[in-house]
């Protein structure tokens, strides 16, 4: 049963890409409202088409060539296998429109969801024996951050510390992602909706926006892939990113603290080595020699005097 005990009030009218008003400004999200959103979605009969027949596949291929991912995708056979899997993801027209909106509005968000989807697919292939489950994981990762496109661009791309109201946009984007995916899938508890809602939650309940404990393995996996790319990628609020080793050290620490899934983190570490090792044979140094940017170089926080969330788990680096 979906837990809506954490209150959420819509700050602005929320529209789907087909022009449907999903939630009005000032409206409180309740189970009744969720049911209405689901019913409105079920009145449609959307047709889906595979990614392999779209420009998205070309964009997937392009982000694989980024320098930070040369080691992970160094094996051409593995690269083509992953592209073959994501190429089978089927999306409805409105979801393609959401992807195009992200691409036009904020290219960082667009490339981020593509690489998160690729990483999720790669690690899911190692972890799950059912190919359909691998496909579902990669597909859910592809739609996890749609709420970012509803953040005002001056907030999303701000290089300064945000004020209180601006910062709330960042904290609320999982809610918006969830509402959009609930409308597009017709199910609040569909995998895509839950991944969108919970990709900043942690195993121990230390994440946001609801502070719930995560058990679903696909959500745990998407969270790690989302964090990894966010840490190593330049952002407007943090132009000095972690290097790959620093990000892996950080994720390993988070796993030892019980916040992230250790098995998935080890799979990611293995894929970042020139010689891939089975997870059971992996030897991990804990000397923390990787680069981590000083906290003062990270502006994704609020300058006003109010009680900010506890960012000790690194959430400010991975929003």
Short description:
The protein is mainly α and about 325 residues long. The protein is built from 13 helices and 4 strands.
Give short descriptive properties of this protein:
319 residues, mainly alpha, Hypothetical protein af1432, two-stranded antiparallel sheet, two-stranded antiparallel ribbon, 13 helices, 3% strand
Can you walk through the features of this model?
- With 319 residues, the protein is mainly alpha-helical.
- The chain has one domain (48-318): Hypothetical protein af1432 (Orthogonal Bundle).
- It contains 13 helices and four strands.
- The chain has helices spanning 31-42, 56-63, 76-87, 93-105, 107-127, 131-142, 153-156, 164-185, 191-198, 217-232, 244-256, 262-271, 315-318; strands at residues 14-15, 21-23, 48-50, 90-92.
- Helix 5 crosses helix 10.
- The two termini are 26 Å apart.
Q: SSE layout and pairings?
A:
Elements: E1 14-15, E2 21-23, H1 31-42, E3 48-50, H2 56-63, H3 76-87, E4 90-92, H4 93-105, H5 107-127, H6 131-142, H7 153-156, H8 164-185, H9 191-198, H10 217-232, H11 244-256, H12 262-271, H13 315-318
Helix pairs in contact: 1-8, 3-5, 4-5, 5-6, 5-10, 6-9, 8-9, 10-11, 11-12
